């Protein structure tokens, strides 16, 4: 997580974690409050230098300024994509779940024209309010009498919007070496599912994982796990609490599938930490190693 490996590939990538995004957004808000941004939403050179220095110091990186500037563009594209959705008739913002909502038939019609925005149907964006402050008019989310949405043909997503969708989704559920776009086990129908399909995928966000992990810890403390397996009553209690928290109507298989995914991620990280050169960084909550160690390991993994 958070590794930008130096290798012989044409283009290295920065894997952004939610903590990195949150800190970067806070830095931009700070510079905005200090007046270090021009009217055309462009931060001053001094602002970028200050943000880059603070970011590298916080996460112990040696990134060039272009890394933050590229992320700035990605977040801007994300904000524009969500704002565009909220300007369409029938789409609204759910402040409780922090996501765009609409009736199934509205989503179905819009996705037919814009298939690349499908992830937004089940994606939470916990920092959208802050993005509105940074990138534009925040009133578009709060639909009043003067903002009713467009009744015209839905606008097609541009290339930047599509890239923003894909990159943000990758970040939300990343592990140290491989990123998962969504929970890879297909699930049964639920409240957010397109009724035209028999199976769907659940896009997990950090708040959902945190709450589910807390539920499992609670059941563990209550003695409702036997030989590493939660009892039937424990699963019933967890899915009831989970659905009540996030307003879903999921069945218990959703949590069981996520349990398997988290267990798999834990095993990957545990195996890494047993290898020479890999250690755990408590401050950044990630596996760290020298670049040469990462490169040698990744070379082996690529050809496995």
Automatic annotation (TrEMBL):
Q: Which InterPro entries match?
A: Myb/SANT-like_dom (IPR024752)
Pinpoint the Myb/SANT-like domain residues: 16-110, 203-297
Alphabetical list of Pfam families matching this protein:
Myb_DNA-bind_3
Give the matching PANTHER family.
EXPRESSED PROTEIN, MYB_SANT-LIKE DNA-BINDING DOMAIN PROTEIN
Q: What is this protein called?
A: Myb/SANT-like domain-containing protein
């Amino acid at each position: 997580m958070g590794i930008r490996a130096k290798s012989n590939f044409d283009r290295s990538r920065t894997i952004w974690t939610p903590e990195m995004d949150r800190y970067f957004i806070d830095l931009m808000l700070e510079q905005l409050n200090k007046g270090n941004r021009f009217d055309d939403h462009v931060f001053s050179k001094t602002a970028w230098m200050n943000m880059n220095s603070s970011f590298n110091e916080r996460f112990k990186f040696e990134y060039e300024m272009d890394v933050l500037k590229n992320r700035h563009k990605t977040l801007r594209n994300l904000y524009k994509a969500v704002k565009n959705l909220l300007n369409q008739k029938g789409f609204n913002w759910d402040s409780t779940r922090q996501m765009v909502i609409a009736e199934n038939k509205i989503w179905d019609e819009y996705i037919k024209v814009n298939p690349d925005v499908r992830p937004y149907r089940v994606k939470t964006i916990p920092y959208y309010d802050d993005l509105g402050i940074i990138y534009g008019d925040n009133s578009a989310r709060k639909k009043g009498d003067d903002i009713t949405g467009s009744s015209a043909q839905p606008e097609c997503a541009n290339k930047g919007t599509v890239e923003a969708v894909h990159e943000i989704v990758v970040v939300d559920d990343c592990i140290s070496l491989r990123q998962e776009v969504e929970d890879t086990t297909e699930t049964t129908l639920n409240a957010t599912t397109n009724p035209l399909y028999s199976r769907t995928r659940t896009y997990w966000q950090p708040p959902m994982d945190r709450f589910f992990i807390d539920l499992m810890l609670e059941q563990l403390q209550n003695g409702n796990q036997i030989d590493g397996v939660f009892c039937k009553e424990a699963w019933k209690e967890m899915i009831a609490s989970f659905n009540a928290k996030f307003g879903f109507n999921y069945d218990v298989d959703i949590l069981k599938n996520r349990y398997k995914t988290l267990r798999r991620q834990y095993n990957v990280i545990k195996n890494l930490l047993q290898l020479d050169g890999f250690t755990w960084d408590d401050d950044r909550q990630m596996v760290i190693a020298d670049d040469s160690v990462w490169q040698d390991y990744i070379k082996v993994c690529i050809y496995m």
